[in-house]
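Hi there,

I know you've been waiting on this one. I reran it after we fixed the sequence typo, so this is the corrected version. Both the input and the resulting structure follow.
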Amino acid sequence: MGQFLLVTIQIDLYDRLALNLEADLVQMVSKTGARGVLIDISVVSIVDSFMGRIIGNIANMSKIMDAETVVVGMQPAVAITLIELGLPLTGVHTALDVEKGMELLRKKILVDGEELDETYNTDSTE
């Protein structure tokens, strides 16, 4: 969707599928020059430590390639599990739903990108 990749996970991921998702997403960020990755996990009911690390890895690798990552639709039980496992998901931003996630990605790009310099020109010579 524009400069964002939108991924909706429709099933609970097992290890091999999670690794494939990680590799595919990183490759697509590189190939498309995407500035943001939005991962919808609203259907996911179970996240183990491996899946938590995969999400963190996706965010870290995307950030290296100048893209932000937002995870949306996290069920309360999944959030509790991630905290109990001690997985803070460093570098991963979260939002309640896809709409709020897209808005967050747009804001992150404006704050981090050149658009901010053009929009908020503080040149005092005018």
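Quick highlight: The chain has a mean pLDDT of 85.

Best,
R. S.
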